[in-house]
Amino acid sequence: MSGFLDIKGLTLRLRGGPTILRSVSLRVASGKVHGLVGESGAGKSTIGKAVLGTLPRAIEITGGEIWLDGVNLLALPPRERRRRIGATAALIPQDPLTALNPSKRIGPQITRRLIDILGWSKADANRRARDILDEVHIPDVARVMRSYPHELSGGMRQRVLIASAFAAEPKLIVADEPTTALDVTVQKQILRLINEMRARHGTALLFVTHDLGVVSKVCNSLSVLYAGKVVEEAQMHRFFTQPIHPYSRALLAATPTYLDPDGSLQPVPAEVIQEVETEVHQHAQRAGYDV
Amino acid sequence: MYEIRNLRLSFPDMAHKPLFGAPPQIEILKGLSFDIPKGVVLGIVGGSGSGKSTLGRAMLRLLEPSSGTIRFDGTDITHLSEPELRPLRRRFQMIFQDPMSSLNPRRQVHGLIAGPLRLHGMEDVTGRVSRALDMVGLPQNFATRYPHELSGGQRQRVGIARALALEPDFILADEIVSGLDVSSQAQVLNLLSQLVDELRMTLAFISHDLSVIRRLCTRVLVLHHGKIVEQAETAALFDAPAADYTRELLAAIPLPDPYQEWA
Amino acid sequence: MTLLRALFMRLLTMAITLFGVAVVVFFLIRVVPGNPIAMMLPPGATEEDITRLQALYGFDKSLFQQFLIWGGDVLRGDFGTSISLRQPVSELVLGRLPATLELSLFALVIAILLGGLMAFLGTLYRHSMAEAAVDVTSGTALSVPDFLWALVLILLFGVLWPVFSISGRVSPSLDFDFATNFYIIEAALRLRFDVVGHLLGRSFMPALALAIPLAAIIAQLLKQSLKETMHLDYVTLARTKGYSETWVILSEALPNAVLPTLTLIGVQFTFLIGGTVIIERLFSYEGLGNMAIDAVINRDLPLIQGIVLLFAALFTVINLVVDMLCVILNPKLRHA
Amino acid sequence: MGARLWLSGTWLGLLALAALFAPWVAPHDPLAQDLFLGRLPPFWMDGAEPGYWLGTDSLGRDVLSRMIHGARIALMVALIAGTLTCLIGATLGVLAGFYRGWSDRIISRLVDIWMAFPPVLFAILLIAVLGPGLLSIILAIVIIDWTRFARVIRAETLSQGAMDYVASAQVAGRTRFSTMIAEILPNILPTVIALLTLEMGIAVIVEAILSFVNLSISTDSPTWGGMIAEGRTSVHQAWWVLVFPLFTLFLTVLSFSQLGEGLKDRFDPVLR
Questions:
Q1: Residue from the list A91, A117, A150 with its beta carbon closest to the beta carbon of C236
Q2: Which of D8, D106, D113, D248 to mutate to test the interface with C (most CBs of C within 10 A)?
Q3: Are the Cβ atoms of C29 and D109 closer than 8 angstroms?
Q4: Distance from A223 to chain C by nearest Cα, in Å?
């Protein structure tokens, strides 16, 4: 089975600095959700950025391929790549408070790209925006379209962002910690909404998060990252029942749950960290790049 | 330790100030009453805008309540002036959410912990600093580091050490693990629960995360829109939540378990 | 409501500020030792002259009474009569104001174009040599005040390679009758673009000298806020939609990044106008500032007071306009 | 990063030495006129006179000697006026930003009024009132420019005051005053230092502007501004009378501001 998104041996480094991603490979099939899990600095967000072509300039791609819908993005000239990504992929960003342009009304923020990039007519774009806002259960769509972002609540803004991501029927969506900034009750609604929309539209989803609880609710499969390397790739149920890598087991043990008040939390043991570091190092030496 | 009765706190709403006259007040805390007996670890939980951080700052008298009373160990501190509060301050301490902001960037760890000790005329400052570092599991040579030379978890330990060194009767911890990765979070939580056991501390622990609260606290107080919707012993609350909001909150938590009834 | 209240509060503080300026300038000149009349008169004036003048200007009354009389006159629009030029101060001052305004606005336009371009290039080519070049240029331009830039420009383009005029607002040979003192605007309205070109050329050097430090400030601040904005999620989002980098900067980032710069331009523009005092002197430009220096040298008390008050009024009005502009451009404040 | 600190420091150091030992360093009496030696060009040009390295002005006074003696006045004004302005302005700024309330209202209102004056005109006016002289210049600079410190330091203090380390000092039981001195002051010091050296450069410029409009010390004392004013009128006959002091002034002002930025970077332990 070939994935809709297929990343092969992706390697990134800070210009003149350390390596950030070490030969990362993963695939996401159409209609499936793949989780990227890890602690801060593990490189999980960087993968999403590499796919969408929004890496900071300080980071350079030193190896690997990113196949999106049968095309290797990294082999395309920049302009072509931008168009390609714009037409097939979309992003649901982390912070709904900063992800909408504060000086523009909601309507145009959804419709502009349909008109500018995809060449829709204005009427079509407006109709589409209204439909999709309706689909994410936004009441009084006409008023919201005319509103500025600061006039909406955080949960409402995240709904708008989800609508905007699905507006052009992308085949892949990268969700970068989409609920981290929200209260748990709102998080639940938003996660359900993402699930519902993804199922209805058959979109492939790359879901970046640090929260194993969230992963278990949304994903079909996941990759665990440590220091820029995938230490374990697994189907979801298998991962939670029989995690293989010591780091995965440590991560699970360190996550508190209210069902288990007395089981003491296990911080990731130093031996495990040491082990992973060695593994990463050996891997790096085999591949022949500096750590 | 703490007796809080009908506590109210409002801020002026400058955005809706009329042309003349006083601005309207936004009430953040709407009449809270609860006690924190000695030796209790109280979890204060709530979503954003619930007023949990404002409550914490009012308890430490960083904010002055609009009405109601706060008694600390029998003393009414509701409207005490800053000089009157100062001798009492050693006895209630706080650990802040963001150690990058709460640790003065121009002081080394030693100075950060020793400063308050000297202020209160405590003896054997160096010994106390070194014991405090021991207690939070930081090596002694960290004493000469600056905050920006530490990791997030280490900074938060310095915050804990600073509060502990004064040997206070009460500590307030405001969202102290929300900025940390799960592994450092687990370390800090373990440390805190171990210290609670050893020192028989009275602690109020503010958090938005019920899983963390359950791990640490003996009693829980659930805040919603500036009101207490439920307060109960931890086990009772998790076994049989009484308030609708508590149930909603519990049901919304995604457990790391694919078989959980959730949707 | 917010806008109205803000406007009202601003007008109130404006009035207080202007009153403060009036008090300071009035008492400054009088409280300090020395007879103001003696200060006004050329050496060798007779005792009789002094007595006559003292009565004329009311200096025989108490300071407080003098202030009340002067203040009352000012409120009625009467700023007194210039001693050295023997004309009503208000006429003199308002006659010169257009020259200074045109020079300042020209400088402002240059500064915005130059600074904006540098900020844009610095953002587009961030983390490269081009950005470093923008930083060094703006850092140097900012460190050196307009007075020195004016001298450098005089040396470079007036003496070594004389391509620009460095003296006067209009060439004596220009054959054109102006009905107003707004020469550039008038010429443009009368569609005499040759005259506009001539006038712009004449004031290009002083305007550039005034513009260089402000351009540097705009370049630095705007580039900084553009770069900060470029990290925000909505900009990332726009990039993933397939827009080009130039479009992302100009259409997504700029409208939000421009606000802090706009606030700053308000204050900095008043500094720029303050700079015209010495720059006009250097370029023999017939504006308010040049007249102000003459007034001080000639000890022309009423004229000094009039000019200072006019500058102060101009500054507060500019601040008010910029504040209102910020409110209008910021949707959060507009609809709150 | 270190380069600009060293370059500017070296230039200012040389200048300070020249100023300190002016009577011994300067080859000629800066005031000595000799009409037979008028408008001598600098040493590398035809018609130069040995010993007059940078030429002479229309009255036959040695340009180099006048510049060296001018440095004395310039640096004196920079040091004294800069330091005084800084002390007064920064103190008011910290008080307004930390204690807020009525002290802030009064100080901010005063700053508003001061900002409504065009500074150059204000300076000229003050000198006209106070009479020319070194003391008047220093006084005028302090009176005008304290607002620069007050404004910037107030804003910086406000933003530092909102940090949690101030609340944590309160929790620890520090007095307000001691919090201001021991917690906030060290954090705003880099800004104060950068502003201080910037102000020194501005003081040099103000002195030059006042000399330029003939309101500075007295026509006898050699000042850079006076030399520039003189050179400006005879630039077509003797460019060197304008160019050398102008270049010196330019470099000095640039050095002061770069020194400040460099020091600010160096003494900031926090990586921003």
A1: A91
A2: D113
A3: no
A4: 23
Residue A35: beta bridge partners?
A207, A222
Nearest to D183 by CA among D162, D207, D205: D162
- CB contact C130 to A (< 8 Å): no
pLDDT (0 to 100) of residue C254: 92
Task: Chain D: list its partners (3+ Cβ pairs within 8 Å).
Answer: B, C
Sheet holding B170-174, edge to edge: B92-95, B170-174, B202-207, B41-45, B219-224, B227-233
Is C332–A148 a contact, with Cβ atoms under 8 angstroms apart?
A: yes
* Rg, chain C, Cα only: 24
- C5–chain B nearest CA distance, Å: 6
In angstroms, what is the C-alpha Rg of chain D?
A: 22
CA distance A212 to A202: 24
Residue B162: domain span: 34-63+85-254
Query: Domains in chain A and their CATH numbers?
Result: 5-286 (3.40.50.300)
- Cα separation, D212 vs C255, whole angstroms: 43
Side-by-side strand order, sheet with A5-14: A19-28, A5-14, A59-68, A71-72
> What angle (nearest 5°) sits at the alpha carbon of residue A266, between those of residues A263 and A269?
155
Chains D and A are touching, with contact defined as 3 or more CB–CB pairs separated by less than 8 Å: no
What confidence tens digit (pLDDT) does each residue in C228-260 have? Answer: 999 888 998 888 888 888 999 998 899 889 988
Question: What average pLDDT does the segment B138-152 reach?
Answer: 91
Collect all residues with Cβ–Cβ distance below 8 Å to D227 and sequence separation of at least 6. Answer: D57, D63, D66, D67, D70, D241, D242, D245
Model pTM score: 0.87
**B202-237 pLDDT tens trace:** 999 999 999 889 888 999 999 999 999 999 999 999
User: Could you tell me which of D196, D248, D261, D191 has the C-alpha nearest to residue D3?
Assistant: D261
Indicate the domain borders of chain C: 98-295
CATH number assigned to the domain with residue range D54-267, chosen from the 4 options 1.10.3720.10, 3.40.50.2000, 3.90.1150.10, 3.40.50.410: 1.10.3720.10
Residue in this structure with the two tokens 């300080």, named with its chain if needed = A58
ipTM of the complex: 0.84
